[in-house]
Design goal:
single chain; 320 residues; alpha/beta; D-Maltodextrin-Binding Protein, domain 2; six-stranded mixed beta sheet; five-stranded mixed beta sheet; 14 strands; globular; disordered N terminus; Bact_solute-bind_prot3; transport; Solute-binding_3/MltF_N
Length: 320
């Protein structure tokens, strides 16, 4: 998941949103608004550069949110302290990580709770958070324009993305796999040739699908919840993205299962404006505390046991 959809589509014109004619066994129901059908590439793209080789996984060492000795905090940190709330970019369609609870109409999930821990350390109160809903395609623009302070949205750290925004240390590691209906006959990427595979637009899952199975048609939808719908309506044969996201989809439908080997490692980081190094250090301080005081494991046990047992959080890597 190491390239954006813009890179995937380089060299050819971007497909227009369409409602395709009915072919094969696909239903006559309309696809979600904004859906794009990306035809098979026919050739296998080169593997992207691993983030471990370009230094993207190494972040800044934890530091105090307000420096000692009378020095003023960094610009964005000062803004956060002045407004007395942390503005966090999330989505509401990623079950287990960031979703809207229909019973309480509140945002819940692993990423939501991680953001609250950042607010707890920075502002002294985990409730001092303002969540703003972002699409995958708009999240980095919002960060660069300082419309949000941080993004906690299952973001895979890549070399290309690290040129654009800063990342925290890795706080979760996922693996891209495949989700299908029981009895589909699909057991791995080889079986996706000639099939439709759903992925969210403007995510790096698209490039991985094209690399591991260039004979697949990609159904690119606005949100991951749309992939669940098109799979249930037989408008796609499979969904492929991080197992963490797939587990959230499968939890909503017992007729679905995750199959096949890991296709790509997906190290998640919290996105931060590249100029705000003080905030990067503050966020890394929170993540370090969560690793050592048991908070990370408590959140994993609350939200992510569907992924199976883990020994603990990913170890941090620092560059200074």
């Amino acid at each position: 998941m190491l390239l954006t959809v813009g890179v995937v589509l380089a060299g050819c014109s971007a497909p227009e949103p369409v409602t395709p004619a009915v072919t094969g066994d696909y239903t006559e129901l309309s696809l979600p608004d904004g859906t794009q059908l990306i035809p098979p590439s026919g050739t296998t793209p080169a593997a992207p550069q691993a983030p471990s080789t370009c230094g993207a996984l190494a972040s800044l060492r934890p530091g105090p949110s307000v420096p000692t000795g009378g020095a003023p905090p960094g610009r964005l940190v000062a803004d956060i302290l002045a407004r007395d709330r942390l503005i966090v970019g999330v989505d509401q369609n990623t079950n287990l990580f960031s979703f809207r609870d229909p019973n309480t109409d509140t945002l819940e999930g692993f990423d939501v709770d991680v953001a609250r821990e950042v607010a707890r350390d920075l502002l002294g109160d985990a409730a001092k958070v303002e969540f703003r809903l972002l699409t995958p395609g708009g999240r980095f623009d919002a960060l660069e324009k300082n419309q949000v302070d941080i993004i906690a949205q299952t973001i895979t750290i890549t070399c290309q993305r690290a040129e654009r925004v800063a990342f925290s240390t890795v706080y979760f590691e996922a693996y891209q796999r495949v989700l299908v209906a029981n009895g589909s006959g699909i057991s791995g990427p080889a079986d996706l040739a000639g099939k439709r595979v759903c992925a969210a637009a403007d995510t790096t899952s698209l490039a991985t699908i094209q690399r591991v199975q260039p004979q697949a048609t990609i159904v690119a939808v606005p949100d991951w919840a749309d992939c669940l719908m098109v799979l249930q309506q037989r408008q796609a044969d499979a969904v492929s993205t991080d197992d963490a996201i797939l587990a959230g989809l499968a939890a909503q439908d017992p007729t679905l299962q995750i199959v096949g080997p890991p296709l790509e490692t997906e190290p998640y980081g919290i996105g931060i404006n590249k100029t705000n190094t003080a905030l990067v250090r503050s966020v890394n301080g929170t993540l370090e505390r969560m690793r050592t005081d048991g908070t990370w494991m408590r959140l994993y046990d609350r939200w992510l046991t569907a992924l199976g047992p883990v020994t603990g959080p990913p170890a941090p890597t620092y560059r200074d």
